[in-house]
Amino acid sequence: MDDANLNKHYELLCVIVNHGQAGKVMKVAKQHGIIGCTVFLGYGTIKSRILEFLEINDIRKEIILMVGEKSVIRNAAEIISTEFEFHKPRHGIAFIMDVANFIGSRGCIYKKDRERAGVEKTMYNSIFTVVERGKAEDVIEAAQKAGSKGGTVINARGSGIHETQKLFHMDIEPEKEIVLILSEEGTTDAIVKSISECIQIEDPGKGVLFVLDVSKTFGLY
Fold this sequence. Notes:
Elements: E1 10-18, H1 22-31, E2 37-43, H2 48-54, E3 60-69, H3 70-83, E4 93-98, E5 101-104, E6 108-111, E7 124-132, H4 136-145, E8 152-156, E9 165-167, E10 170-172, E11 176-184, H5 185-199, E12 208-218
Antiparallel strand pairs: 1-3, 1-4, 2-3, 2-8, 4-12, 5-6, 7-11, 7-12, 8-11, 9-10
Protein backbone atom coordinates (compact mmCIF):
# COMPACT_ATOMS: atom_id res chain seq x y z
CA MET A 1 0.00 0.00 0.00
CA ASP A 2 1.19 3.51 -0.78
CA ASP A 3 2.26 5.07 2.55
CA ALA A 4 0.77 8.38 1.44
CA ASN A 5 -2.69 6.83 1.50
CA LEU A 6 -2.36 5.90 5.18
CA ASN A 7 -2.84 9.55 6.09
CA LYS A 8 -5.85 10.01 3.83
CA HIS A 9 -9.51 9.39 4.49
CA TYR A 10 -11.69 8.40 1.53
CA GLU A 11 -15.43 8.89 1.27
CA LEU A 12 -18.25 8.00 -1.13
CA LEU A 13 -20.48 10.79 -2.43
CA CYS A 14 -23.91 9.82 -3.74
CA VAL A 15 -25.86 12.43 -5.71
CA ILE A 16 -29.46 11.86 -6.85
CA VAL A 17 -30.84 14.27 -9.45
CA ASN A 18 -33.59 14.45 -12.06
CA HIS A 19 -33.04 12.65 -15.34
CA GLY A 20 -30.68 14.50 -17.67
CA GLN A 21 -28.68 16.23 -14.94
CA ALA A 22 -25.98 13.60 -14.34
CA GLY A 23 -23.68 14.85 -17.09
CA LYS A 24 -23.72 18.37 -15.68
CA VAL A 25 -23.08 17.10 -12.16
CA MET A 26 -20.11 15.00 -13.34
CA LYS A 27 -18.63 17.98 -15.20
CA VAL A 28 -18.73 20.11 -12.04
CA ALA A 29 -17.33 17.24 -9.96
CA LYS A 30 -14.37 16.72 -12.29
CA GLN A 31 -13.65 20.44 -12.28
CA HIS A 32 -13.20 20.21 -8.52
CA GLY A 33 -10.95 17.19 -8.24
CA ILE A 34 -13.18 14.12 -8.65
CA ILE A 35 -11.36 11.64 -10.91
CA GLY A 36 -14.23 9.38 -11.94
CA CYS A 37 -17.96 8.86 -11.52
CA THR A 38 -20.45 6.03 -12.02
CA VAL A 39 -24.05 6.72 -13.05
CA PHE A 40 -27.12 4.56 -12.42
CA LEU A 41 -30.65 5.09 -13.65
CA GLY A 42 -33.28 5.22 -10.95
CA TYR A 43 -37.04 4.97 -11.28
CA GLY A 44 -40.09 5.70 -9.19
CA THR A 45 -43.39 4.02 -9.95
CA ILE A 46 -46.25 4.94 -12.23
CA LYS A 47 -48.83 4.81 -9.44
CA SER A 48 -49.79 8.35 -8.42
CA ARG A 49 -49.95 7.62 -4.70
CA ILE A 50 -46.32 6.57 -4.73
CA LEU A 51 -45.35 9.62 -6.79
CA GLU A 52 -47.04 11.76 -4.18
CA PHE A 53 -45.17 9.93 -1.44
CA LEU A 54 -41.82 10.42 -3.19
CA GLU A 55 -42.64 14.05 -4.01
CA ILE A 56 -41.16 13.84 -7.49
CA ASN A 57 -42.49 15.22 -10.77
CA ASP A 58 -40.27 13.14 -13.02
CA ILE A 59 -40.17 9.46 -12.05
CA ARG A 60 -36.78 9.05 -13.74
CA LYS A 61 -33.75 9.73 -11.58
CA GLU A 62 -30.00 9.55 -12.06
CA ILE A 63 -27.72 8.41 -9.25
CA ILE A 64 -24.06 9.43 -9.43
CA LEU A 65 -21.45 7.71 -7.23
CA MET A 66 -18.01 9.25 -6.67
CA VAL A 67 -15.13 8.16 -4.45
CA GLY A 68 -12.38 10.52 -3.39
CA GLU A 69 -10.24 11.88 -0.60
CA LYS A 70 -12.37 13.41 2.17
CA SER A 71 -11.49 17.06 1.63
CA VAL A 72 -12.05 16.76 -2.14
CA ILE A 73 -15.41 14.99 -1.68
CA ARG A 74 -16.62 17.50 0.90
CA ASN A 75 -15.65 20.46 -1.30
CA ALA A 76 -17.24 18.96 -4.42
CA ALA A 77 -20.43 18.13 -2.52
CA GLU A 78 -20.78 21.68 -1.23
CA ILE A 79 -20.26 23.14 -4.72
CA ILE A 80 -22.65 20.68 -6.40
CA SER A 81 -25.28 21.34 -3.75
CA THR A 82 -24.99 25.09 -4.28
CA GLU A 83 -24.84 25.08 -8.09
CA PHE A 84 -27.78 22.71 -8.48
CA GLU A 85 -29.78 24.41 -5.72
CA PHE A 86 -30.34 21.36 -3.55
CA HIS A 87 -31.75 23.71 -0.92
CA LYS A 88 -34.88 23.91 -3.09
CA PRO A 89 -37.43 21.05 -3.03
CA ARG A 90 -37.08 18.39 -5.75
CA HIS A 91 -33.83 19.80 -7.12
CA GLY A 92 -31.80 16.85 -5.85
CA ILE A 93 -30.10 15.41 -2.81
CA ALA A 94 -26.59 14.29 -1.93
CA PHE A 95 -25.09 12.36 0.94
CA ILE A 96 -21.64 11.19 1.97
CA MET A 97 -20.70 7.76 3.33
CA ASP A 98 -17.46 6.50 4.80
CA VAL A 99 -15.19 4.18 2.77
CA ALA A 100 -13.33 1.39 4.56
CA ASN A 101 -11.52 -0.04 1.53
CA PHE A 102 -10.80 1.43 -1.89
CA ILE A 103 -8.84 -0.14 -4.77
CA GLY A 104 -8.48 1.30 -8.24
CA SER A 105 -8.72 4.82 -9.69
CA ARG A 106 -5.24 5.28 -11.17
CA GLY A 107 -3.67 2.63 -8.99
CA CYS A 108 -4.86 3.97 -5.66
CA ILE A 109 -5.06 1.39 -2.86
CA TYR A 110 -6.62 2.54 0.40
CA LYS A 111 -7.61 0.74 3.58
CA LYS A 112 -9.05 2.63 6.51
CA ASP A 113 -7.05 2.57 9.72
CA ARG A 114 -9.93 2.14 12.15
CA GLU A 115 -7.79 2.76 15.22
CA ARG A 116 -6.63 6.16 13.95
CA ALA A 117 -9.86 7.24 12.25
CA GLY A 118 -11.88 9.87 14.08
CA VAL A 119 -15.46 9.17 15.06
CA GLU A 120 -17.94 11.43 13.27
CA LYS A 121 -21.47 11.76 14.54
CA THR A 122 -24.01 10.00 12.34
CA MET A 123 -27.45 11.58 11.97
CA TYR A 124 -28.63 9.61 8.94
CA ASN A 125 -28.35 6.09 7.55
CA SER A 126 -28.73 4.80 4.01
CA ILE A 127 -30.78 1.62 3.74
CA PHE A 128 -30.21 -0.53 0.64
CA THR A 129 -32.73 -3.29 -0.09
CA VAL A 130 -32.31 -5.65 -3.06
CA VAL A 131 -35.50 -7.47 -4.08
CA GLU A 132 -37.18 -9.14 -7.03
CA ARG A 133 -38.60 -6.77 -9.63
CA GLY A 134 -42.09 -5.69 -8.64
CA LYS A 135 -41.34 -5.81 -4.90
CA ALA A 136 -39.87 -2.29 -4.62
CA GLU A 137 -43.28 -0.76 -4.00
CA ASP A 138 -43.80 -3.13 -1.06
CA VAL A 139 -40.45 -2.05 0.37
CA ILE A 140 -41.32 1.64 0.03
CA GLU A 141 -44.76 1.19 1.59
CA ALA A 142 -43.32 -0.78 4.51
CA ALA A 143 -40.69 1.92 5.04
CA GLN A 144 -43.37 4.62 4.93
CA LYS A 145 -45.37 2.90 7.66
CA ALA A 146 -42.28 3.06 9.88
CA GLY A 147 -41.61 6.76 9.26
CA SER A 148 -39.61 6.94 6.02
CA LYS A 149 -40.02 10.14 4.00
CA GLY A 150 -38.85 8.95 0.58
CA GLY A 151 -36.91 6.52 -1.54
CA THR A 152 -35.29 5.85 -4.89
CA VAL A 153 -35.67 2.65 -6.90
CA ILE A 154 -32.78 1.45 -9.07
CA ASN A 155 -33.12 -1.25 -11.69
CA ALA A 156 -30.13 -3.57 -11.27
CA ARG A 157 -28.92 -5.24 -14.46
CA GLY A 158 -26.02 -7.37 -15.60
CA SER A 159 -24.03 -6.38 -18.67
CA GLY A 160 -25.93 -8.87 -20.83
CA ILE A 161 -29.23 -10.72 -20.80
CA HIS A 162 -27.60 -14.00 -19.75
CA GLU A 163 -25.16 -12.43 -17.29
CA THR A 164 -25.52 -11.51 -13.63
CA GLN A 165 -23.72 -9.38 -11.09
CA LYS A 166 -22.99 -10.35 -7.48
CA LEU A 167 -23.87 -8.45 -4.30
CA PHE A 168 -22.99 -10.20 -1.05
CA HIS A 169 -23.01 -13.55 -2.91
CA MET A 170 -26.51 -12.90 -4.26
CA ASP A 171 -27.11 -12.79 -8.01
CA ILE A 172 -28.32 -9.37 -9.15
CA GLU A 173 -30.13 -10.26 -12.37
CA PRO A 174 -32.10 -8.00 -14.75
CA GLU A 175 -35.30 -8.55 -12.78
CA LYS A 176 -33.87 -7.19 -9.50
CA GLU A 177 -34.61 -3.80 -7.96
CA ILE A 178 -32.53 -1.87 -5.44
CA VAL A 179 -34.41 0.45 -3.12
CA LEU A 180 -32.35 3.23 -1.55
CA ILE A 181 -33.86 4.96 1.47
CA LEU A 182 -32.29 7.67 3.62
CA SER A 183 -33.48 7.64 7.20
CA GLU A 184 -32.80 9.54 10.37
CA GLU A 185 -30.75 7.36 12.70
CA GLY A 186 -33.56 7.24 15.25
CA THR A 187 -36.00 5.65 12.80
CA THR A 188 -33.62 3.29 10.98
CA ASP A 189 -34.24 0.24 13.15
CA ALA A 190 -38.03 0.59 12.84
CA ILE A 191 -37.79 0.97 9.04
CA VAL A 192 -35.49 -2.03 8.71
CA LYS A 193 -37.80 -4.13 10.88
CA SER A 194 -40.86 -3.08 8.88
CA ILE A 195 -39.20 -3.92 5.55
CA SER A 196 -37.85 -7.23 6.86
CA GLU A 197 -41.24 -8.35 8.14
CA CYS A 198 -43.10 -7.18 5.03
CA ILE A 199 -41.00 -9.05 2.48
CA GLN A 200 -39.74 -11.80 4.84
CA ILE A 201 -36.21 -10.95 3.88
CA GLU A 202 -34.65 -13.53 6.18
CA ASP A 203 -36.17 -16.32 4.09
CA PRO A 204 -33.84 -17.69 1.35
CA GLY A 205 -34.09 -15.83 -1.95
CA LYS A 206 -36.27 -13.03 -0.63
CA GLY A 207 -33.63 -10.32 -0.86
CA VAL A 208 -30.71 -8.55 0.77
CA LEU A 209 -30.79 -5.53 3.07
CA PHE A 210 -27.83 -3.56 4.43
CA VAL A 211 -27.38 -0.23 6.20
CA LEU A 212 -24.54 2.28 5.89
CA ASP A 213 -23.77 5.32 8.02
CA VAL A 214 -24.14 8.75 6.38
CA SER A 215 -21.76 11.44 7.60
CA LYS A 216 -23.20 14.46 5.75
CA THR A 217 -26.31 15.28 3.71
CA PHE A 218 -27.50 17.96 1.29
CA GLY A 219 -31.05 18.69 0.15
CA LEU A 220 -32.89 16.80 2.89
CA TYR A 221 -35.77 18.45 4.74
